[in-house]
Amino acid sequence: IGGIAKVAPLHIIHVAIEMAPIAKVGGLGDVVTSLSRAVQDLGHKVDIILPKYDCLKFNHVNDFHHHVSFGWGGTEIKVWHGKVEGLSVYFLESQNGMFDVGCVYGRNNDGDRFQFFCHAALEFILQSGLRPDILHCHDWSSAPVAWLFKEHYKHDGLASARVIFTIHNLEYGIHQIGKAMIYTDKATTVSYTYSKEVSQNPVISAHLYKFHGIVNGIDPDLWDPYNDNFIPVSYTSENVVVGKNAAKEALQKRLGLNNSNHPLIGIITRLTVQKGIHLIKHAIWRTLECNGQVVLLGSAPDPRIQNDFINLANQLHSSHSGRVRLCLAYDEPLSHLIYAGADFILVPSLFEPCGLTQLVAMRYGSIPVVRKTGGLYDTVFDVDDDKERAQSLGLEPNGFSFEGTSSSGFDYALNRAISAWYHSREWFNLLCKRVMEQDWSWNRPALDYIELYYAARK
Ligand code: ADP
Q1: Which of 180, 230, 233, 440 is deepest in the core (most CB within 10 A)?
Q2: Is 27 in the pocket of ligand 1 (CB under 6 A)?
Q3: 94 lines ligand 1 (CB under 6 A)
Q4: Closest ligand 1 atom to the C-alpha of 298?
Q5: All domains of the chain, ordered by start, with CATH?
Q6: Does ligand 1 have an atom closer than 6 angstroms to the CB of 299?
Q7: H or E element: which one contains 371?
Q8: Protein residue with its CA nearest to atom 4 in ligand 1
Q9: Nearest Cα residue to 336 out of 305, 370, 296, 364
Q10: Per-residue pLDDT tens for 408-453?
């Protein structure tokens, strides 16, 4: 890394189908934006190519204008350009209406739509004379960039570009991921422990020599309790108790919870099997038994799971009125208020490539309670069990964690967390201050990516 400052800056183009905050479904969208901003801040040129969905949040796009059009794939591709969070973004609009379907995912031809997008993106790069050093593609959805590039575009005036492929979740689109792993110059996944957990997978195991785990960060400007329009009082680690109490009160008021002095547990998640649904349900009941309050913000792509939670919400809202609220929707502003107003954020995932919620939680002084897996293992260090592991990395312990998938295992973490809140409040408040002061930004991981970009060019 020492020599980086002396060599030429790179031009990186991300081809992605999610981008926060204009087209975010999960962590992939956050990473595309925040990694790009961090790399750009280090002096490199970054562009992002994204589909022009009809459901884009255009109010976050500045200087939006038509850039160029070209005929391709039996239709016309209209390219728009704009700035999102200070990043240069090209939006591809296909006149065949492929991205005018009201959502990012969720159509039965998602695979075809995204492959069409990847191909159009490469065609745009070629035709417009952009000559990137690095093409960075993500997950199954932009995996086709890797093989399309190597088979059709590498020799077509784009010879000097190298492909980086990042796996944010191996659970989806294994076939596309397998094809990208073969063709990409370097591959990454989003934490060291997840990279080890998936290393025996047949699509990965043959490529370990070019496969690296780099933990995700969060953007400290986009998640900043000192500068956040969605919370009532700005705060830093110096006035964390005041700031969080105000946020808790606002959250209780907004969701019709009692304004009482009890521990408040927050859960912000896609409701999928990955996220440990039985453990989430268990934690709700257990917290209520301990006289705590619970706020869950989550939505389920699977209607059966969504209905199951609607039933649970109806049951809980009447049996434990004023103490629990399940908000079964996607709501970015509310998520900020929960991160700030909760005492704990639970992440009991069965597997978790990195996980961003625990990192955002800490930025807002909420204590993570997590299952020891993937990136959760790499970023959360149990106050009782992981002191040495944390110290070997120059960190102090920062949360509660557990192993296994049983509810009693989860209780081991949850009980200690709630009990610390009731019985060791001063210690607990110091812990909130401490987690806010830890650096889970892209400062270090962005350097790792840049080093990898240079390594790909050797
Ligand atoms: P994944 O990518 O598997 O969904 P991550 O933890 O990597 O999980 O990222 C989740 C991101 O999505 C976080 O920024 C989190 O705050 C956000 N998020 C998840 N569910 C919701 C929701 N219902 N409303 C608002 N934000 C949500």
Answers
A1: 180
A2: yes
A3: no
A4: 23
A5: 4-219+443-457 (3.40.50.2000), 237-437 (3.40.50.2000)
A6: yes
A7: strand 367-371
A8: 26
A9: 364
A10: 999 999 999 999 999 999 999 999 999 999 999 999 999 999 999 9
Vertex 214, ends 209 and 220: CA angle to 5°? 165
pLDDT value at residue 157: 81
Q: Whose CA is nearest to atom 22 of ligand 1?
A: 330
How confident is the model at residue 156, as a pLDDT? 79
Going from the C-alpha of 166 to that of each of 34, 54, 287, the distances in angstroms are 14, 26, 37
Sequential DSSP letters for 251-297: HHHHHT-----S-EEEEEEE-SGGG-HHHHHHHHHHHHHTT-EEEEE
Nearest atom within ligand 1 for CA of residue 190: 7
The structure tokens listed for 381 are 């260090």
Following DSSP, what letter does each residue of 385-452 receive, concatenated? T-HHHHHHTT----BEEE-SSSHHHHHHHHHHHHHHHHH-HHHHHHHHHHHHHS--BSHHHHHHHHHH
Q: Could you tell me which residues come within 8 angstroms of residue 23 by beta carbon, excluding any fewer than 6 positions away?
A: 17, 29, 50, 51, 53, 55, 56, 57, 104
Report CA(455)–ligand 1 centroid distance (Å): 31
With a 6 A CB cut-off, is 356 part of the ligand 1 pocket? yes
* Digit-coded pLDDT (tens) for 79-93: 999 999 999 999 999
Contact 399, 380 (CB under 8 A): yes
The predicted complex's ipTM stands at 0.99
Q: Residue 327 CA: which ligand 1 atom is closest? A: 23
State the Cα–Cα distance between residues 362 and 380, nearest whole angstrom.
10
The answer, yes or no, to whether any atom of ligand 1 lies below 6 A from the CB of 297, is yes
